[in-house]
Amino acid sequence: MLNPDFSIFNDNMFAQVRQILNDVTVHTNEELIDVTVGEPRMPPPDWLVDQLMAESKNWQAYPKAFADQAFLDDLHVYCQSRFPDIAGQFDMDDHVIPVPGTREPLHLLGYCVRGAKQDSIALVTNPFYHAWRAGALMAGGEIVYMNAAAEDDFLPNLSSLSEDILARCNILYLCSPSNPHGKIASADYIAHALQLARRFDFLLVVDECYIDIWRQTCPVSALEVAIKIASAGQQQEGSDPFSHLIVLNSLSKRSNAAGLRVGFLCGDRSLISAYKQVVANGAALVQTPLLRVAGALYRDDEHNQLIRQHYTTSFDLLADHLPVIIPEGGFFLWYDVPEAFQGDDVACARHLYAHWGVKTVPGSVMAQQTEAGNPAAGYLRLAIVHNHDVISRLGTRLAGFEKSL
User: Fold this and answer.
1) Residue 174 region, left (φ>0) first, then alpha (ψ -120 to 50), else beta?
2) Same structural domain for residues 51 and 22?
3) In whole angstroms, what is the distance from residue 333 CA to residue 326 CA?
4) Residue 272: which CATH number?
């Protein structure tokens, strides 16, 4: 009765983490520090609750299948501030649609391209966020994993993809800043990806959910890259500047509002049109009161600056305790397992939990084994999302752990 393809979900990352750590006996009386889940632990702006109450009069109305004009107006303000190069270059009605977070659209995008090519391939960055793999499954063809390894600066080596694979590709998933490495893709890298998408006629999906969480360098958006390509005359006049591109943006990290479940898709008008048909016929909608609150969050930059500074301070606190490679963006520490564990990230995670009361994600469970190996093996992912007191204690424990080896 069940779809056999769903067996791919049996190796869910968090289920594997539970299996790895459940039988560990903890030998410390210290309070547990759980850094497994990339969920903001700090609150959203204080005014969010008041804003939500003010919108309570709109609960009686059905959510709109497409965009609420007030939300689009607020989103326009955000885009003008955050991506000034694209201001006025796209049509809010044709190029944008609000979504209930990005997890659902990440996998429904695969459905939108299903059947576009025979013997198709979906290309997924490895390690991967589970919704990318779900989207690849929805696309209906073979899933090919692109390793994002240290030797390639933690981004997939697009130049290594054969023309046969690219010709069969119907969708490719990238993320910048990346999860879990926090690597920011350069404009040239994104331009290369977009040029491949147009040459070989596939959809480039860029997950930009961490784009407003960064340290020194503000990440470039794939939307900005697309406009730059169009402005340079490298695209046929009159064509859609966002052809073959979809970008996803969310308030979960930008505003510490993961529970609000609001974001937006922006890009290729033909894909947005197809996605609107999916939404109109069966996908989840964003409730109007939540959309209005989301608009206020997108319009306001002050709270995001405070959130960004919080994470910068958190990583600085860690660096005060031990040498760490601070990520360019996002809030994950991609921790290189000490030599004493000989690259065994599972053994390292179990040891940290048993003797230091720190729960982490072994990198190897975040990625698929490939012919070139597992690109996440030998690392732990730590979500640096707690308050500064907890992060300082985490730094103390990690330093003690390393000295004990």
Assistant:
1) beta
2) no
3) 7
4) 3.40.640.10
Q: Is 12 helix (H, G, I), strand (E, B) or coil?
A: coil
Q: Are 301 and 283 in contact (CB under 8 A)?
A: no
Give 306-347 pLDDT, tens digit per residue.
Answer: 999 999 999 999 999 999 999 999 999 999 999 999 999 999
Instruction: Identify the H or E element spanning 113.
Output: helix 103-113
Which residues are registered as beta bridge partners of 333? 382
Residue 382: how many CB atoms within 10 A of its CB? 26
Find the domain containing 151 and state its range. 47-300
Q: Is the pLDDT of residue 362 over 90?
A: yes
Judge whether residue 57 has pLDDT over 90. Answer: no
Residues 115 and 261 in one domain: yes
Question: Which pTM value belongs to this model?
Answer: 0.96
User: Is 123 found in the same domain as 69?
Assistant: yes
- Of the chain, the percentage scoring pLDDT greater than 70 comes to 99
**Calpha distance 315→392 (Å, rounded):** 10
- Is the same domain home to 245 and 270? yes
Same domain assignment for residues 26 and 156: no
Q: How many residues make up the chain in this entry?
A: 405
* Residue 245 pLDDT level (bands cut at 50, 70, 90): very high
Q: Which residue has the tokens 């169009």?
A: 230
